[in-house]
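Q: Convert this sequence to structure tokens.
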Amino acid sequence: FGVPPFLKPCRGSPFHEPVPALLGERKMSVYMEATPQAQLQRVAEVSMEARERVPVLVIAKDRAQASDLIDHLRLAARSRGLGGASEDVVRSLSRTLYETDPEQWKENLNRATMSLGTSESGNKSWRITVTDPRGGRGTDYRVDDPTVDERGGLLLIPTAVPSSQREWTQFLGRTARQDRRGQYCAVLCSADYESLSSKYQQTLPAGGGPELVQSILSWHDREVAERIRGSAALYNVGVRVNEICEEIFGKRQEVLRDPKAREKLLEVCQRMRWMSIKEIDQAFAQIPGLDIAQLPTEAKDLGRPSEPPSVRAVAHDLIGERRTTPFVRQVSPAGTPKVVMFCLDWSCSMLSRDTGTRLTRFGTCVECVQRILRETVRKDDLVGVVGFGPSVETVIQPVAKSRAAKRIEARIASLQPTWAGGTCFFDAVATCLQLLNRPNLAPAGAARWLVCLTDGDDLGSRRENAKGEHVTEMLEAGIPDNLNMVMITVGQLRERNVHIIKSWVERVAQSGGIGKHVYERDATAIARAFDVVSEYLAVDLDGATEC
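A:
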């Protein structure tokens, strides 16, 4: 992706492009570190070396990493004798700071390329500024000091390769602006690219040069091409389903009198994203009196738009090895309702407006739950809701959606976070398990789903359950039967609490259920996390299947 010359700001001098800078102990322009901790250490090494000559801009992969980098770099500055000045040497330009203190953000931007003074070597020293991907696009880091230009210009340190060449060009465009020179030294983490490497059965080139970045960008390009093909397939699938629905609702309404036909219609509409046109025709052909072969189509069969979630893969991710015996999902037998229990954090932190939308964290949760209830939960399924903050409240006892759909929707829509502190997460999970274990709650064999979201560590659960002991005891005792568990955590939790949550989902998976810990670094991904929930619930439409 090339930027046309007329879009490049200039003052009459020849244009400059950012050039790779050989920095750090190994004198490389692109580092690929094995772990996040090694990545932090390398960023500190490169940036501390470079700030003795030029200002440094670090672009973190997300807000959470930006916060980690700021802490680590300030610690590195203190270890190099900068003491209290470390707060000035390392400054934040993350979106989080902008939302909480825009004036401080503006001051940090103005000071980002200003010198701090003269170092021990007699040269000017400079600041290290840390931003997130938002700061890698459209922000002008103006460099006016000619000595910076003489030493190669503002140094850019990207810690991740974005998903497109265009965005990478935007990142590089934060340096070498106007008629000034610019340079970059990328410090990446191999863990961020393991899934892509495995997907395309390719390893990244050794050597640490720009070709490594181009390899990652090529993987992203292939992903985009796959999404485009998937979109074309989904469009044609939608055309075919629409043709059949027009036939049923317009000319064959008698078909809808059969409850099984209505159930099949709902099932196809929920699963169509994972079906080819041939599979859709086969599914509708099961409806008595409907001759699909006689219904013409304008759709082209391009295969499945995407594959359904792999339950075997989930089990492998959680347990660490493939089972030698078949893995059976805990789903409801055909026609048997399932129980879906939502456990939602409504502590004061859920009032934060950092989701990237007009909604708060809690508002996003409510919207996602309502969508799942409308689109994925069947009318005969049972629904329950528990909320937690400084205390635990059962908002809705498990009840059939068909009996109380409007009441459920209105009650959920009315929920509001509390301004009081405290997060009794462990107690809330225990309450949900007790509700799911009520006798005669659902028919024998019915799957029970527990979907939890919290954006912080447990603070306030009873002393005897302060480490989730009651939950662990119930799960070890197999309470309740046929349990599936999806745990969504947002933000950085203490390692101890993450270990507890992982032990729960592993226990569920080992018992034959679906156990999933969806970890999201920031609130912008809450909706995406609930999409995972929706996909798992949508798969649970047939009887138990062997995977």
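Residues 6-13, 310-331, 541-547 have pLDDT under 50 and may be disordered.
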